[in-house]
């Protein structure tokens, strides 16, 4: 879906795209790197694996994606 915004004399279009941060529980080894980098986004659950607690900071989560040793995190 496309939205058009009128800003002064310029028109911009934006895609209505929801970005989701996800952790694959099967892949996660519970190293805690993502929690150390983005404590506002990730926490370790009772099983010792990372889980997403907030979808607000996708930029930080992208850094966690790059730092995850088993590539268990996705930001789509």
How are the elements arranged and paired?
Layout: E1 2-7, E2 10-15, E3 21-23, H1 33-37, E4 42-44, E5 50-52, H2 58-67, E6 73-75
Antiparallel strand pairs: 1-2, 3-6, 4-5
Summarize this entry quickly.
The protein is an alpha+beta fold and 76 residues long. It has one domain (18-75): Alpha-Beta Plaits, CATH 3.30.70.20. It contains two helices and six strands; from the N terminus they run E-E-E-H-E-E-H-E.
What does this structure look like?
It contains two helices and six strands; from the N terminus they run βββαββαβ. The chain has helices at 33-37, 58-67; strands at residues 2-7, 10-15, 21-23, 42-44, 50-52, 73-75. A two-stranded antiparallel sheet has the order 1-2. Strands 3-6 form a two-stranded antiparallel sheet. A two-stranded antiparallel sheet has the order 4-5.
Helix content: 10-25%
Strand content: 25-35%
Q: What's the CATH class, please?
A: Alpha Beta
What sort of overall outline do the alpha carbons produce when their principal axes are compared? globular
Low-confidence stretches: 1-16
From the alpha carbons, calculate the radius of gyration and give it in angstroms. 16 Å
Based on the structure given, which CATH architecture is correct? 2-Layer Sandwich
Mean pLDDT: 86
CATH topology: Alpha-Beta Plaits
In total, how many domains does the architecture comprise? 1
SSE order in H/E notation? EEEHEEHE
Q: What structural class do the secondary elements suggest?
A: alpha+beta
Helix run count: 2
